[in-house]
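Data availability (excerpt). The following record was deposited with the supplementary files.
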Amino acid sequence: MPSEISSQEIERIVRLVVQRLRQAGATTQPASTTQPSTANVGELRLDVKLVTIDSLKDKLNDSITRLCVPAKAVVTPAVKDELKQRGIELRRVDQNDCSATVGGPVVVNAAKQSISASWGSAAPNEQIGNLKQAVERAIQLAKRDQMAILLSEQPEAATVAANRQSGIRAMVACGSHDWQASAKSLAANLVVCHPAHWNDTDVPRLLTTLWNLRGSAGPTWIS
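Predicted structure:
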């Protein structure tokens, strides 16, 4: 049986093919699309069709925890090995989202009362009046973005419902308590807030802090 080709050999072949295509003038991808975007803390975004070790040169560092590439991008085995070794998540997104700037978690609003505009300071709000549907949507966002916010006058009930879903680490956050320490300890990816328990001036810090905490591994004592 023929021997299995190593990831390094595949990388070498890909590099030679790309080099010959460039020499032949067959590469139609503009050079500007290879410029990385790090709009989100810990996230590197590449709007390219082919991701090789060469394309990652001088772009990865200890602060990068996630690599975002277009959904149809080809990622070589050597790149996957490198990301796994560094503990970097590979995420595929829509082409139009690759260079998009997202400054915070999406806020799912299931509150009956009107809320402050500060809840939309980092990302758009999604208004869903039904609590069950709002919890389901927040779970989807938490799995997609690794962080979501849910507003409800029944935060405890919403948290219990969300935590029934595998992979979700939901918690209640109140402005008068040490929510930041709890979020770090739990590695929360879904935070439920009662909007009346938050001052407008504290909301932006909540959104920014939680967004920067996303992607943390959950504690070993949580199965």
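Summary of structural features: The first strand starts at residue 43 and ends at 45.
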